[in-house]
Design goal:
Layout lengths: L1 E7 L6 E7 L4 H19 L7 H14 L2 H5 L4 E6 L10 E6 L1 H25 L16 H20 L3 H19 L5 H32 L4 H9 L6 H18 L8 H8 L2 H26 L4 H28 L4 H17 L12 H4 L1 H25 L13 H4 L1 H15 L5 H16 L3 H26 L32 H19 L2 H4 L10
Antiparallel strand pairs: 1-2, 3-4
Helix pairs in contact: 1-2, 1-5, 2-4, 2-5, 4-5, 4-11, 4-15, 4-20, 5-6, 5-11, 6-7, 6-11, 7-8, 7-9, 7-10, 8-11, 9-11, 10-11, 10-13, 11-13, 11-15, 12-13, 12-19, 13-15, 15-17, 15-18, 15-20, 17-18, 17-19, 17-20, 18-20
C-alpha cells in the first residue's frame, strides 16, 4: 500500500519519486485522526454524553492496533527514504521503519494507553462516575483525551523513527501534551508538578538538541545508520566534537527514562499529576524514551559502544540503587503510595539499562544484548500499569494515598487485594508473579553473557533490597484491620465515597477500573504461564535493524 509523490528538483531537470507506505505509517496516522475526532466531538457532546469521548479514544487506539497485524508478516517496511549513492556504495536511508522492534514497542505503547484511558474515565466523565470531592475529578474530557492521543501518536512515531530529526520531533510531540496532562489536576499541586516537569524537560531537550547538532556537524548525516557510518570513518580532528555530541545526546534521553542523576522530576511529578497521568508517564512516556535510547545507542552510536557501554553500566547501577534505597525510605517514612511507585519505577529503569552496560568493543554484541531491554520493557508495562490501576481504584475511597491505607484491603475488596499482591510480587520477581522473575532472569543472562560480573552483583543486591518494600506493601493487604474498623469498611475512606458495600461486604468499583485491572491481571497471568509471548523477541534476528 504505497503512494508516489514526485518531487521536482530545484533546476527542474530531474525528479525524485518518493514512495509513501501508508500501511507502515497507519498506527500514528490513526491516532492523530482519533485525536482530532475527539476534539471535534467535544464541541457537540454535552452533559452525560461526554462519556463518549473516552470511547472514541478507545476506538482510535483499537483502530491503530489493526495495521500491526499485516505489518507483522510483511517484513521490514520503510518509507520517507532518500536514495543512496551507487558511486560511493552508500545505501538508501529511511526516516520511518516498521521493523519487529517497532511493532513490539508500538503494541506495548498503544495497549498501555488503552488501559490509561480506562483508568481516566471516572476522572473525565460526568456522573455517575465522577466525584466532585476527589482531587482527580473534574478534568475536561475533550482536552484530556486529545492530549493523551496526541502524546501516544508521538510515542508510536518515535519507535519507528530512524533519523535524529524525526526522533526529536516525535519526542516533543509526546512530551508537550504530557506537560498539559500533568497540569489538569484541579489543585495547586498539579500546576507545580507540571511547571517542574516542563522546565526540567525543556533543559533536557536543549541538551539533546545540542548533542544532535554536534553529531550532525561531525558526520554530516541525520539518519541513524549514516551517522554510524560517519563515526566509523571520522576525521580525527572532530572526534572530540563527536564524542561530546554522543554524550549530550545520551544525557538527553537519560532524562526521559528517569535515569540517575536525571531523575529528580519523577517523584514530585507523579505525585502532583492525576494518578492515571502518573501511570501514563511511568509506562508510555518511559517506554518511548527507552525506544529512542535503544535506537540512538544501538544504531547511531554503535561505533562508540566501548565508551557509552561502561558509562551506562555505572548509570544503571546508580539508578537501581538510588531508586530502591529511597523507595525503602518512603515505605518506612511518609508511606505515600504514588511516590513509592515513582521510586520503584526509577529502580525498574535501572534494570532496563543493565543490558546497555554490557556493550563493548565496536558494538557487534548489541544485537544479542539489547533485546533483553525490549523484553523487560514489555513486562514492566503490564505489571506497573496493573499496580497503578489498583492504586487509582483504591484512591477513590482512600484519598490520603498512603501505603498504610491498604491495610486489610482483602476484607473490603478481595479482588483488588489479590490483584495488587500479584502485581507487587511481579515487580519483586517472586512467584506467582513469574513474568517479573523471567524478565529479571533475562536481564541477568544478558549481563553475565556480556562479562559484566560486577553489574550482575549490583543488580542481585538491588533485587533483594526491592523485596523489602514490595513485601511490606503485600503483607498490609492481608493484615487484620485496625481495632474499631467496621466490617468491610475502608479505614480512612470518604463518607459516601464512590465505592459502595455490596451484599458480600466487598466494595464495588467503577466498571472502567475493574476492566483495567482485569486486563492487566489477565495479561500478567498469561505472561507468567507463557513468557515466550514476550521473550521470543530475544531470538528475533536484527531486532534493531
Amino acid at each position: 500500500m504505497t503512494a508516489s509523490v514526485e518531487l521536482a528538483s530545484t533546476h527542474g531537470a530531474a525528479s525524485l519519486v518518493q514512495d509513501i507506505d501508508w500501511l507502515a505509517i497507519a498506527p500514528p496516522l490513526a491516532l492523530a485522526v482519533a485525536a482530532l475526532a475527539v476534539l471535534l466531538a467535544d464541541l457537540f457532546l454535552t452533559g452525560p454524553r461526554k462519556v463518549w469521548l473516552a470511547w472514541i479514544s478507545l476506538a482510535g487506539l483499537a483502530v491503530s492496533l489493526l495495521p500491526l497485524i499485516p505489518l507483522r508478516d510483511g517484513g521490514v517496511r520503510s518509507t520517507f527514504c532518500v536514495p543512496g549513492n551507487p558511486t560511493t556504495g552508500e545505501a538508501q536511508a529511511c526516516s520511518y521503519v516498521a521493523s519487529d522492534f517497532t511493532l513490539v514497542l508500538q503494541l506495548v505503547l498503544i495497549g498501555s494507553a488503552a488501559v490509561v484511558v480506562l483508568l481516566s474515565m471516572p476522572m473525565t466523565a460526568p456522573r455517575p462516575w465522577a466525584d466532585d470531592r476527589h482531587e482527580d475529578s473534574g478534568v475536561p474530557g475533550g482536552e484530556y483525551h486529545f492530549l493523551l492521543l496526541a502524546s501516544v501518536a508521538g510515542a508510536v512515531t518515535l519507535a519507528a523513527a530512524r533519523d535524529l530529526v524525526t526522533l526529536v520531533v516525535a519526542l516533543e510531540t509526546m512530551s508537550l501534551p504530557a506537560f498539559a496532562m500533568v497540569g489538569l489536576r484541579r489543585d495547586g499541586r498539579g500546576r507545580e508538578a507540571a511547571l517542574k516537569y516542563f522546565l526540567l524537560s525543556v533543559a533536557s531537550t536543549a541538551v539533546l538538541l545540542f548533542g544532535i547538532s554536534l553529531l550532525y556537524g561531525a558526520t554530516g548525516a541525520v539518519h541513524l545508520d549514516r551517522v554510524a557510518a560517519g563515526l566509523e570513518a571520522l576525521d580525527p580532528r572532530v572526534k572530540t566534537v563527536a564524542a561530546t555530541g554522543a554524550a549530550l545526546t545520551l544525557a538527553g534521553f537519560a532524562f526521559k527514562v528517569a535515569a540517575v542523576p536525571f531523575h529528580f522530576w519523577v517523584p514530585d511529578t507523579y505525585r502532583g499529576a492525576p494518578v492515571p497521568v502518573a501511570a501514563f508517564l511511568s509506562v508510555v512516556s518511559k517506554t518511548a524514551g527507552f525506544a529512542g535510547l535503544l535506537l540512538v545507542a544501538g544504531i547511531a552510536l554503535r561505533p562508540y559502544a566501548h565508551v557509552w557501554g561502561p558509562a551506562l553500566a555505572v548509570l544503571a547501577a546508580l539508578t537501581m540503587t538510588v531508586g530502591n534505597v529511597v523507595a525503602v525510605r518512603v515505605a518506612t517514612g511518609s508511606g505515600d503510595a504514588v511516590r513509592l511507585l515513582a521510586w520503584s519505577s526509577i529502580a525498574q529503569s535501572g534494570y532496563v539499562l543493565v543490558p546497555f552496560g554490557t556493550a563493548a568493543g565496536d558494538g557487534a554484541d548489541l544485537a544479542e544484548r539489547l533485546p533483553a531491554s525490549v523484553a523487560y520493557l514489555a513486562v514492566y508495562a503490564v505489571m506497573n500499569l496493573g499496580a497503578f490501576a489498583v492504586v487509582t481504584a483504591v484512591g477513590r475511597d482512600r484519598p490520603t494515598g498512603l501505603v498504610s491505607d491498604y491495610r486489610a484491603l482483602l476484607r473490603a475488596r478481595p479482588a483488588l487485594a489479590f490483584a495488587m499482591a500479584f502485581f507487587l510480587l511481579c515487580l519483586a520477581g517472586l512467584p506467582p508473579g513469574l513474568m517479573g522473575l523471567f524478565a529479571k532472569v533475562t536481564v541477568f543472562q544478558a549481563v553475565v553473557a556480556g562479562g559484566a560480573g560486577w553489574l550482575a552483583v549490583v543488580m542481585a543486591v538491588n533485587v533483594v533490597i526491592g523485596l523489602y518494600y514490595y513485601l511490606v506493601w503485600t503483607a498490609l493487604l492481608f493484615a487484620p484491620p485496625l481495632p474499631g474498623t467496621p466490617p468491610g469498611a475502608l479505614p480512612g475512606a470518604l463518607p459516601g465515597a464512590t465505592g459502595t458495600l455490596g451484599e458480600s461486604g466487598s466494595l464495588r468499583v467503577p466498571a472502567p477500573f475493574a476492566l483495567a485491572v482485569a486486563l492487566a491481571f489477565g495479561l500478567g497471568v498469561a505472561l507468567s504461564v507463557a513468557p515466550q509471548i514476550v521473550l521470543r523477541v530475544l531470538t528475533v534476528p536484527g531486532l534493531l535493524g
